[in-house]
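Contributing: when you submit paired examples, paste them exactly as shown. First protein:
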Amino acid sequence: MTNSPYTPGIAPARLDADTLAGNFTDLHHPLDDHAALVAADRCYFCHDAPCITACPTDIDIPLFIRQITTGMPDAAAKTILDQNILGGMCARVCPTETLCEQACVREMAEGKPVLIGQLQRYATDTLMAKGVHPFARAAATGKRVAVVGAGPAGLACAHRLAMKGHDVVMFDARPKGGGLNEYGIAAYKAVGGFAEAEVDWLLQIGGIEVKTGQALGRDVTLDGLQAAFDAVFLGMGLAGVNALGTPGEDKAGVLDAVGFIEDLRQADDLAALPVGRNVVVIGGGMTAIDAAVQSKLLGAETVTVLYRRGREKMPASRYEQDLAASKGVRFIFNAMPLEAVGNGSVIALRAEYTADTGNGLQPTGEVFELPADMVLKAIGQTLDGAPTGVALTGGKIAVTGAGRTSAKGVWAGGDCAAGGEDLTVTAVAEGRDAAEDIHRELMA
């Protein structure tokens, strides 16, 4: 965190250890064998399968569900992992309610889709629990590829390249691989160190060397990587955080939500984590929801999400909004921050209601204050230290086709690349597709 966490009103151990442990248990308890069979039996196995079209990684969903119904969860996992090597994590964090499950015929007919996400988790967890890696490397090609960033895009790219027989070296600025899966996902969505375990399992393919503590621009350069490797994939995500640009942003207690979530994810003792009594989260995406819910679970008395537009414009899905509301999080829509109020430490957030008019978002002049001893900013991230030599668009790396950048022999994917949604599953698809394109180029 950028400011001292021990400002007035911010304290650790607001709840006892048992309550905290209960608050941060698995969001969705895994299906057992019987429940998985019952859930799988609801699938119509549609010939046109709209759920496949809705999946960014094009998993053959009817096939893997049929494999579960016939008692072959390992085969089902292989079907999933063929397309999405991080299928275990995606089963936990994918917004299935707006992707495959929303497209499910059962959802459209009955308002109750097949539990595709939970079935995917059942299959992949079953296989991973056996310590089995279902892929083997092809014959060595003698080609070496550098992958910058060990997040979802980089991991998917590295695995597919290694499977093709290339040698891969991954560079990541953080102490551990996993990217947002390790550092940026709500703790109750990936319990028990799953993100780290999934990375370890993925690396069983062989041929991938991971170098942590290596940041692009600080420890390695793009020019140097281009000279030393046959190809380079950039998947370093977005390390910068947008500023509010309002007075009082530098006050103690005004923090970045991504840093708050990271601290929580890496904490050995939840009781040692400080949280405010009155927390205001600014933003409308998944980071805002994750920060708000976890503030409440840590013991904050009031948690309010402030979003400048209406509910229907909020990037976080209605499911996630309802989840937050069920935990006691309050939402204020059509309101924007004006100032963090306080003398040294924040004590309130001054805000103004907005109206979404034909001329865009406009302030209404109606100002109000919310008590706040902790303000968490979740208003988006930026590409920090963009590499020289590649063209940018909209503050991200410009790409064409399967992730080709303007620099010869350099591909990019995931959050740092322009286009697509900032989702784990989308990053996996982009890393996988870039690897296939890199392979074709290297073997031409």
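Second protein:
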Amino acid sequence: MTRPAEQPDVRPSRLSRDEIEANFQDLHPPLGRSEALIEADRCYFCFDAPCTAACPTGIDIPVFIQKIRSDNVRGSGKTILGENIMGGMCARVCPTEVLCEEACVRNTHEEKPVEIGLLQRYATDPIIDSGVQLFARAAPSGKTVAVVGGGPAGLSCAHRLAVLGHNVVVFNRDEKPGGLNEYGIAAYKTVDDFAQTEVEYILSIGGIDVRNNVALGEDVQLRELIDAHDAVFLGIGLSRANDLGIEGESLDGVVNAVDYIAELRQAEDKSTMPIGRTVVVIGGGMTAIDIAVQSRHLGAEQVHMVYRRGPDEMSASAFEQALAQTTGVAIHHRAPPNRILGDEHVTGVEFTSDGGRFVLFADMVFKAIGQQIGGFSEFAMQDGRIVVDAGHGTSIDKVWAGGDCVVGGSDLTVTAVQHGKLAAIDIDRTLRGAPDG
């Protein structure tokens, strides 16, 4: 239990601007040419590569690594981007430690796996940075598809549809496209405005009209889109942060982590972001890790992350948990919150554990217990998400969906990209009247 402050201590500039900029440098600096060639040489180029089987987008990993080994970086990048148009961002944020790299045959007690994520970044960054378009559009189909959502699922769907010759209109609720890649990922994972650089590359294929600040259900209605377009894809994510449902949740200083992360990502000067001296984060997922680590980077002296279940049940990977702990975050398990303390401003949180109740005093509390979709009662739903078939078609004719908003969404960029790609392929098949399969 930490001691309560005499009064809440939440303010900006806990650290200098230079200190904060240093703290938010690239989490995984890119490989140089010699480093990439050495790492590529470690790959066994397995015929039935388990790393490829573990990749949600099905990238042929041995092939792209072999091309790096032969110094064909552009060919390597095309192999990646052909399956995952957001391969650059996924190289930065994908939990490779539980996907391709965990499956790597070199991942043993004696040695580390091939650094597939860093090799993927090595291959894709030069293409995306240069803006050289590797893909050409097919002959115009005369069809138009509305894509709702400018995040990974929506942009992936839009790009594949454009390549297939369809015209696409993207309706994006935010000021900029990119979705969680732009607004929801820790700033130290995607530096130098990479999210927008990648978006610009995706849109450079042509045939994609992006309309920002347009929200479904407010500025445009689903029925309007169905009537005005040949097909509709929903990549709307999970827009509502879950509430704790406990006493004191409305006190000043109790903040939704996703809202704070979005504001931090858009801040030109991160030292202007207010942060508490002592911070409590409630949750056990990637968002909880991101806000906990960034709180420390902004100058919080103590950060406590509290999860209601055990460590094995946390959705944050072991790597992310270790990152938080080595950054100075204390992680507490099996302690659901009971109530938030304070009169007008939060002063702490009372938790329940096997040993009884305990209090962690804090002048700032972040809620990071997940999100849910908005009201879409017209769809077949399961556990608060839209039900889709194998081609990502919904229960409504002419409407497909993918990403976090559907059953099977894993809150990962790479999964959302695959959903968008599969939906685009199925939309194309349907619009052209092709038979199933």
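If you have annotations for the second protein, write them as plain sentences, like these:
The radius of gyration is 22 Å.
The chain has three domains: 10-26+242-370, 33-130, 144-239+373-431.
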